[in-house]
Structure formats: C-alpha cells, structure tokens
Design goal:
This protein has 277 residues and is α/β, with parallel strands linked by helices. It has helices spanning 14-22, 34-42, 64-67, 105-110, 112-117, 128-138, 149-155, 205-215, 248-259, and strands at residues 4-8, 27-31, 48-55, 59-60, 74-82, 86-89, 100-103, 121-124, 143-147, 158-162, 171-178, 191-199, 220-227, 235-242, 261-271. The protein is built from nine helices and 15 strands. The strands form three sheets. Strands 1, 2, 3, 4, 5 and 11 form a six-stranded mixed β-sheet that branches. Strands 8-7-9-6-10 form a five-stranded mixed β-sheet. A four-stranded antiparallel β-sheet has the order 13-14-12-15. Helix 8 packs antiparallel against helix 9. It comes from Roseovarius gaetbuli.
Length: 277
C-alpha cells in the first residue's frame, strides 16, 4: 500500500495542492475535519498530515493552535503555498454568462474587485473544492466556483480566469505533522523550533520570559496567546523561533523561559521552508 498524507477538505482543496506540491510521491488522503486528519496519522492510516496554520491575508486558521498541543503528533516540516484563485465553470461557458460564484467566504472576500467588475453575485459555500464539485453536479451554466485550478481538473470544469485574487502575494503556511519527532539538522535555510508554554502567575512574567530571547539574539517570528480550559486567567502561548534547541543561544533562551513558565512543550523542530524568506 502506498504511503499517505492526510489533509482536511475535499479533493482539489488548497491543502490537497499543498500535499501534491510538497510530497508528490505520497497519496493524498482527504479528511472531513482537522481532527480526522490528525487521527489518520495517529492511527497509522497516514504517515503525515498537512495542516494550514496561517494565511498572509486572513491571519491564523481557527482551531489549529488548540489542536496541536494535544494531537500527539510532531511538526517535522513547514510548507508555504501560493493561493491562486481561479473562476471555474462548466465546459463551454463564457465569462459573460456567469451570474454567480460560489466558494468559501474567505475566498469570496479575496476576489471582491474581480467579482464586482464582472457583476458576479457571491454565494457562500462550505469550502472551495466542495463548491467546485457542486457547480459540476448542478449543471447550471450561470453558476461558477472560486477554487484552485486543481479543483477544476478534478471536477471537469473550465478555468475562465485565474489569479483573480485582490492580493497578489496571498500565501498559506502549512505544518507537516508526523507520529515521531525529528530533531536532526536538515535543509539549507536554517531550522525552526515551535513550542507552547504557560507563564507563571507572577507580575510581568511574559515580559521576563521573553527577555531571554532578546538578550541571546534569538529571532521570534511568531507569538500568539489563547485561553485554555475556558479560563480567563490561564493563558497559553504559541511561539515560533529561528534556530535549533541545541544552538547555544537558543538553549540559553529556553532555559530562561523555563524559569518563568509552568509548562513548556516543544511541538517540533524542522527546516525553514525556502519560501519563508
């Protein structure tokens, strides 16, 4: 049996595109939810999971940061995928025939200028690839979908226009999850370390905890907070830093962090994607 990489969504989703671009040798396994994609790896149905964590236009993907610490999986790679949006319609349909376009609300918002210019009404769908499938099955020439060109290939739709997003640099960052961690140094663009932590309940704890990264010259590329356990006082922080835990400056910074925190969990150590820079 061929090895698999799980993703959330239907065939043709941008997460599917990320799987094909990053691991073309693996069979992509569609899953209904992020939890299902994680479970597929944990249960041995797939070797890896491709999970989106943030988009350059719309920020972080909801729920992912809550799922990662308790997933039982480890980050072994990251992937940056350019989101190019296509207008897809039934074969033979012309652009001037299209009256409405269906897609996930996020994509509809990213193509506002194009849709207004062509007087195309926006229709909210569950997701991008699902909208393409719906258009193919509905057989209504006046209805189109906003999705990837990959979705057009899968569902037999024509690409009437591509690259129609308002922001020309729209990119989604994905994390690749596996059952076992990989702390080896690899890649040609440096290493990244991702971890979550909870600060001790003392004045200026976060300020003091972050001081070690500044004094040791460690670049923190991401720091986000979110509540845990439904409490307004228990806050967990998610962080990405450049470097490997064995780097002397990173080790010193993590030691200082440990002093001011009640818990630190390293989620993964992985090579920086060249597209990060």
């Amino acid at each position: 049996m061929s090895k698999r990489i799980a993703f959330q969504g239907e065939p043709g989703a941008y997460s599917h595109q990320a799987c094909l671009e990053t691991y073309p040798e693996l069979e992509a396994l569609p899953c209904s939810t992020f939890e299902d994609a994680i479970a597929a790896v944990r249960d041995g149905k797939a070797e890896l999971a491709m999970l989106p964590v943030e988009n350059s236009t719309f920020g972080r993907v909801a729920d992912i940061h809550h799922l990662l610490p308790d997933s039982g999986l480890h980050i072994i790679a990251e992937a940056f995928v350019r989101v190019q949006i296509s207008l897809l319609a039934l074969p033979g349909v012309r652009l001037d025939q299209v009256e409405s376009a269906m897609s996930h609300t996020m994509l509809l918002g990213q193509c506002r200028a194009f849709l207004e210019r062509h007087d195309i009404h926006r229709v909210t769908g569950a997701d991008t690839a699902g909208s393409a499938r719906h258009v193919a099955e509905a057989g209504q020439p006046e209805m189109a979908a906003l999705a990837s060109s990959l979705a057009g290939e899968i569902y037999g739709l024509d690409v009437l226009a591509e690259g129609i997003e308002d922001e020309g640099n729209n990119t989604t960052r994905f994390l690749v999850m596996a059952r076992e961690p990989d702390f080896s140094r690899r890649g040609d663009n440096g290493m990244m370390t991702t971890f979550v932590f909870e600060v001790r309940n003392i004045p200026a704890a976060l300020y003091k905890a972050m001081g070690g990264f500044a004094t040791n010259g460690v670049n923190m590329t991401k720091l986000e907070s979110y509540m845990v356990g439904g409490s307004f006082t228990a806050t967990q922080f998610y962080a990405d830093i450049e470097g490997h835990p064995d780097d002397p400056e990173v080790a010193r910074a993590l030691d200082e962090l440990d002093y001011f925190t009640s818990d630190i969990t390293i989620l993964g150590v992985y090579p920086a994607d060249p597209r990060r820079h």
